[in-house]
């Protein structure tokens, strides 16, 4: 609408200039300037409003993107935590299963030991009192360590002697007690 007024006022100004009526021409020229200023202000205001709308839309888009990335990160972290929990639960289950198996095996071994002990007692195998046989103190120490289940190397390390020295002492002990193996040595000594 303002654009039509500008055109109309410019036409009137031109008309009065051609007539030589400069007073009215000047008056309408002021109206042209005033209307153009108003028109430009409206255009600038419209452009600013458009820019503001674009900025608001960009801001909304950024917020939506931020929310999407935030949710994605939360999902990823949640997935990782879920995997960790599942792994820990599986490890716990496996550990419990192993414990049950070890307990069963221990009970089985205990039962076997009791069975063998009862069989030995029924057969009349008597125990040898190592203190009364005349073994040296070192030989008695080795027998005690054998009864604890130590290997020759472990016995040597404990007593600060070589593994071959342990073997030599065991050979002497076997001859003195009349046994043939470590197992017989464990069974027959007090």
TrEMBL record:
Keywords, comma-separated and alphabetical: Coiled coil, DNA-binding, Membrane, Transcription, Transcription regulation, Transmembrane, Transmembrane helix
Alphabetical list of PROSITE patterns matching this protein: HTH_LUXR_2
Membrane-spanning ranges: 72-93
Coiled coil (residue ranges): 99-126
HTH luxR-type domain mapped to chain residues: 128-190
Keyword flag Transcription regulation: yes
Protein's name according to its UniProt entry: Helix-turn-helix transcriptional regulator
Species annotation: Sphingobacterium hotanense
């Amino acid at each position: 609408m303002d654009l039509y007024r500008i055109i109309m006022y410019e036409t009137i100004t031109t008309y009065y200039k051609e007539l030589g009526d400069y007073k009215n021409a000047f008056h309408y020229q002021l109206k042209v300037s005033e209307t153009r200023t108003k028109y430009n202000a409206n255009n600038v205001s419209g452009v600013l409003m458009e820019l503001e709308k674009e900025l608001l839309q960009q801001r909304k888009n950024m917020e939506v993107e931020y929310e999407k990335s935030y949710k994605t990160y939360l999902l990823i972290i949640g997935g990782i935590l879920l995997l960790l929990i599942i792994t820990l639960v599986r490890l716990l289950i496996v550990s419990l299963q192993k414990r049950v198996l070890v307990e069963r095996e221990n009970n089985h071994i205990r039962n076997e030991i009791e069975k063998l002990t009862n069989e030995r007692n029924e057969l009349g195998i008597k125990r040898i009192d190592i203190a009364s046989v005349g073994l040296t103190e070192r030989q008695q120490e080795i027998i005690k360590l054998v009864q604890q289940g130590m290997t020759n190397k472990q016995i040597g390390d404990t007593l600060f002697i070589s593994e071959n020295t342990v073997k030599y002492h065991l050979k002497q002990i076997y001859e003195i007690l009349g046994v043939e193996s470590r197992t017989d040595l464990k069974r027959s000594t007090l």
